[in-house]
Specification:
With 185 residues, this protein is mainly beta. The chain has one domain. The chain has two helices and ten strands; from the N terminus they run ααββββββββββ. Strands 1, 2, 3, 4, 5, 6, 7, 8, 9 and 10 form a ten-stranded parallel sheet that branches. The longest helix is centred in the first third of the chain and has 22 residues. The chain is globular.
Length: 185
């Protein structure tokens, strides 16, 4: 009996690992109908860090720290949180950072702390409690899209940098509230 249990455990473990390997680098749920340049094409050529996280339901919470700096850093994080108590905290430093975050529903909340150059961020929150808090320091050449479709919304974005700061914000309905501060210090 114990041998049969061990064999089934190994079979299940291999199946699970195969599924994680096959789908680990992909946001799913059809990337919640994509666009925003099809949610950034991550064509990384450097020595940077990459993180791919899918959390489908219940207590969701994720924290990512990427701190590789230098000529070829290029950090990437892609996170999908589909439902329930979502929460994502990302800390990045370096250059050519890319972040894609999709939070589809329930209590959402996203925080980014970043120091670096040539960064690209696409953040999508579809519904429920929403909140976006971003603090970017010593940044240049950033492209940021923040999209909130509905419910209690709120965006606080603070950015200190020198050149080419582009931010696109789209809030569709419900509580809405936005504060965007950009400076050249």
């Amino acid at each position: 009996m114990k041998v049969i249990f061990n064999i089934w455990f190994v079979v299940l473990l291999c199946t699970f690992m195969g599924a994680v390997t096959s789908f680990g680098q992909v946001l799913t749920q059809d990337d919640l109908i994509k666009t925003t340049d099809e949610l950034i094409d991550a064509n990384l050529n450097g020595n940077g860090n990459e993180a791919y996280l899918n959390q489908i339901g219940n207590g969701n919470e994720v924290g990512v720290i990427q701190d590789l700096q230098g000529a070829n850093s290029q950090n990437l994080v892609k996170i999908l949180q589909v439902g329930n108590r979502n929460n994502a905290q990302i800390n990045q430093a370096g250059k050519l950072n890319q972040t894609v975050l999709i939070q589809n529903g329930d209590r959402n909340e996203y925080t980014l702390n970043l120091e670096g150059t040539n960064n690209t961020f696409v953040i999508v929150q579809e519904g429920n409690r929403n909140k976006i808090n971003q603090n970017l320091t010593n940044t240049t050449d950033t492209y940021i899209e923040l999209i909130q479709q509905g419910n209690d919304n709120e965006i606080t974005h603070n950015q200190d940098g020198l050149t080419s700061q582009k931010i696109i914000v789209k809030q569709v309905g419900d509580g809405l509230k936005m504060e965007v501060n950009q400076s050249n210090n």
